[in-house]
Design the sequence.
């Protein structure tokens, strides 16, 4: 798990779903726990997060609990009518109220958890859309840019010119380098390419 001295943690919680992001120097940690499903807990390298694949998903978390409650009240209403007649009407009213609440939950986005989901090899990372969402996403994007700058933003004059130019175009589009750095890299690349095509024996 990512951690160490100075590691920062950001936690989120909504409708039974909790997430914890740990931002360390070298690795990023992620944990999600859902009351209606399994827990996931792992760390990932910045290289795993270089994809632009992001989707927004919604999940209505209280539905399972309310469904179980509605069924329980329905059964209780039937039993009350048979064995406790004086409580039968009250049980039936509670059952109807539970059904109404269940319908409202299924149709009202207020009770939904909205995530931004990022695809990584270790499994999708889900960021709850709340007041901390943008800060978490920004930290992940910063880690991506640092990794890409360190590993790719180095001009290779021995590589194929078109491929190297495409790489620096891609880095510019991702915000890893700025327009000035992109222009300098392309100028050096074109100059090196021109030198490659000089007739052999040409004096400098």
Sequence:
């Amino acid at each position: 798990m990512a951690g160490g001295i100075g590691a920062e943690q950001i936690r989120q919680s909504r409708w039974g779903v909790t997430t914890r992001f740990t931002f360390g120097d070298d690795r990023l940690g992620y944990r999600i726990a859902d009351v209606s499903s399994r827990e996931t807990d792992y760390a990932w390298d910045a290289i795993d997060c270089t994809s632009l694949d992001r989707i927004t998903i919604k999940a209505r978390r209280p539905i399972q609990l309310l469904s179980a409650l509605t069924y329980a009240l329905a059964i209780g209403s039937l039993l009350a009518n048979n064995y406790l007649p004086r409580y039968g009407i009250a049980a039936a009213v509670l059952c109807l109220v539970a059904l109404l609440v269940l319908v409202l939950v299924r149709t009202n986005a207020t009770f939904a958890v909205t995530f931004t989901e990022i695809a990584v090899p270790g499994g999708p990372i889900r960021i709850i859309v709340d007041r901390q969402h943008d800060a978490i996403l920004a930290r992940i994007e910063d880690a991506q840019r640092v990794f890409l700058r360190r590993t790719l933003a180095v001009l290779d004059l021995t590589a194929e010119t078109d491929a190297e130019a495409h790489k620096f175009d891609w880095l510019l589009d991702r915000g890893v380098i700025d327009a000035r750095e992109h222009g300098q890299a392309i100028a050096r690349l074109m100059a090196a390419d021109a030198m490659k095509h000089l007739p052999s024996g040409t004096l400098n």
User: Anything to note?
Assistant: The chain has a mean pLDDT of 76. The first helix runs from residue 63 to 83. Residues 161 and 190 are 8 Å apart (CA to CA).
